[in-house]
Design a protein that fits this description.
353 residues, alpha/beta, Rossmann fold, five-stranded parallel beta sheet, four-stranded parallel beta sheet, 9 strands, disordered N terminus
Amino acid sequence: MSGAPPVPAASESVSESSESFMAREIAEIPEAAAPLCAAWPEAERAAAALRGRAFPFAVVCGRGSSGHAGVHLRYLIETRLGLPVSASAPSVVTGYGRPPRMEGALFVTISQSGRSPDLVAATRAAREGGALTLALLNDAASPAAQAADLVLPIGAGPERAVAATKTVVNSLVAGAALVAHWAGDGALARGLAALPPRLSAALALDWGAWAADLADAPAAFVTGRGLGLGPVREIALKLAETLRLPALGYSAAELRHGPRAAIAAATPVLALRQDDPLAEGIDALVADLRQAALRVHACGGPGGSLPWLAPGHPACDPIAMLVPAYRAIEREARRRGLDPDAPVGLTKVTETL
């Protein structure tokens, strides 16, 4: 960017003395997620309360990173259980004062702190309106926990960086574990059991080539589809809050519509591709963008240009893809002289109405 300070090369090493809380918490992800990945009794207890109930629909409530975990959970519930899922609009309750009718529905709140007044109010209104309320929280003693019928504690431990990382991964894993138990999905359960070593291996992957392309970019795009859409939006958020870089996360299907016109040589695209029935469409998009001489960094598949692992479970791979993306963003922030632990204008607990 014109007038910006010079940015060191992407391959430049990061000294131990300058390690951020964000970097430490990214490194803690495999250990934090491991208890949730195999025979997690909390998920079985929550799933037991859901099995056998004929919910007409489900609603997922969350903002920011928690909302992105909710997108991933939506795809899992709809594909594994055939239950339609909607996203909550808490302002309908807090701003317009019109709680929706929720009789017999499942209402899932996802929050790291469990303290934002709008999420608490929406959870309370859903419960009063006849929904069974379930909260996925890092703070099991929070107001959101008290407002819910059931609590699934994600157990990520303390997180000091404002930019959430291990709590996001644990929220995603907790949702997947819940669905694996609820649906009796053995393949998903096996994918989760294999996830901790894959998260550890992902820590060693260097996505510096993508980060280097972000250095002079006025904006960036992140794309994927289906089970990858939640992580796609999460990475875009991290680019915005940690690098102050306008970033947009789009479904690969949506990107082919209006947003495609905004992609230029100066706006790099990161594509996440899991090995499932939607992979072919992502591969085709990557090929088309490269044919147009645009800068595309792809993770997974025959068009993959970033370091990645052998394909794993398609619901779990997009979770693991967050790890090298987080590492690249954290390092790029410090190369720019930004503090990844304290993005400007943000606080750890965001309270909205």
